[in-house]
Task: inverse folding
């Protein structure tokens, strides 16, 4: 077996160490810039991170998120979809892509990804909520009601679940059920503006 010269071995170790340090500094810088709401700079800080290394999937997710924060929705969708191509089982990527899609009012596409998450992880709160938002945007009141009812059953302390349920009933013309749901909102969050305003009109 051929021996590797010690100098060459040490050089390789140092190179690996320097690359790790550079990556660590890039990630740290990116998170710090994001905290300061410097989203473009936070994205640029990652320009030296390898797109084929161990952090490749995380890099695509991070780019998707930072692009979304900048309002670059098409770019954000692309990054999240690339992350899904790398790992089709990624719930982070499937949930992430719903954000720019909702922002672009691409309701059906957003609903598709939310359902994809729910197929893998039933009762996942964020997926449920984004599915309901997509259905509200698409004015699919029956589906919205169905999923909002399920959400209130699974998360009975959650105010948002009852708000969406109340809206669905209101749009469907079921005032009694809407009143009941908005009353449930006020129990969970007294003085909730939307619930108070709706009930005051009855």
Result:
């Amino acid at each position: 077996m051929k021996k590797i010269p010690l100098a060459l071995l040490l050089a390789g170790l140092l190179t690996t160490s320097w690359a790790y340090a550079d990556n660590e500094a890039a990630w740290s810088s990116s998170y710090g810039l994001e905290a300061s709401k410097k989203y473009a700079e936070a994205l640029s800080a990652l320009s030296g991170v390898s797109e084929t290394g161990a952090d490749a999937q995380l890099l695509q997710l991070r780019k998707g998120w930072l692009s979304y924060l900048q309002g670059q929705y098409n770019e954000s969708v692309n990054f999240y979809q690339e992350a899904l191509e790398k790992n089709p089982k990624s719930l982070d990527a499937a949930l992430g892509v719903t954000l720019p899609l909702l922002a672009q009012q691409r309701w059906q596409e957003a609903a598709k990804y939310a359902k994809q998450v729910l197929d893998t992880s039933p009762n996942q709160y964020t997926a449920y909520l984004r599915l309901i938002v997509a259905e509200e945007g698409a004015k699919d009141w029956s589906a919205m009601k169905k999923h909002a009812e399920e959400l209130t059953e699974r998360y009975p302390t959650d105010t948002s679940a009852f708000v969406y349920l109340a809206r669905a009933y209101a749009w469907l013309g079921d005032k009694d059920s809407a009143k009941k749901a908005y009353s449930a909102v006020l129990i969970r969050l007294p003085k909730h503006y939307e619930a108070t305003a709706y009930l005051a009109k009855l």
Observations:
- The longest helix spans residues 6-35.
